[in-house]
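User: Please look over both lines:
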Amino acid sequence: MNDNRLPLYIQIASDLKFKINSGEWNVEDQIPTEYELCTIYDVSRITIRKAIDQLVNEGLLYRKRAVGTFVQEKEVEAKETVVKSFTQEMNNLGRKVHTLKAQIKTEKATAKIANFLNINEGNPVLNLQRVFGTDELAFAFFDTYFTYESFFSINDEDYYGSFYEYLKSFDIIVDSIKEYVEAVKPNEQLVKVLEIDEHTPILKRVRITQQVGKTFHEYSECFYIGSEYRYYVNDFT
């Protein structure tokens, strides 16, 4: 817990969430008291209370008056996409970001892209390139290829919001995902769009998604300035 860019209560909430999702804390387990958590994390009671409030609001914890705080049984939810948009990821961590630039175009699939999208080489695909960041700093670039359908817009303005919410408007619910991450050096395109030098450390995340049993597939290469992004793995299913 050492990310100074995030509020302390967000970092603590993330750590507590990990304990729940990893099975360290089971359903109906009583978590440590606020006083004990203050000692563990060396923070004020107000900070601990804000962290717990966040997890209560997310349905992960519940309080029993004059007894304590317990792990909540997860409710059965309506089917949703298994992935979060980048802006949603960042907002959940207390950092407000938005799409700075979006560009959509139609291309012919290369052998590599055709393989990931389960189509034939040369078939039409949609390529969406986006830059994310704050008003002061651009720190992420996404290069996304996805299955061509005539109902998808080719207007850049339609892709400034959440990509996965846009897909849901066509009843496309992404329910399968594979990812890996690696450290890379920035290429000329990244140096230009993120306004960095060629020695800036970059985290690359490759994401492959699909709607099982349907034709939709996505292949994305996501690049982040290393000092501005941290990849959390804390959602066990």
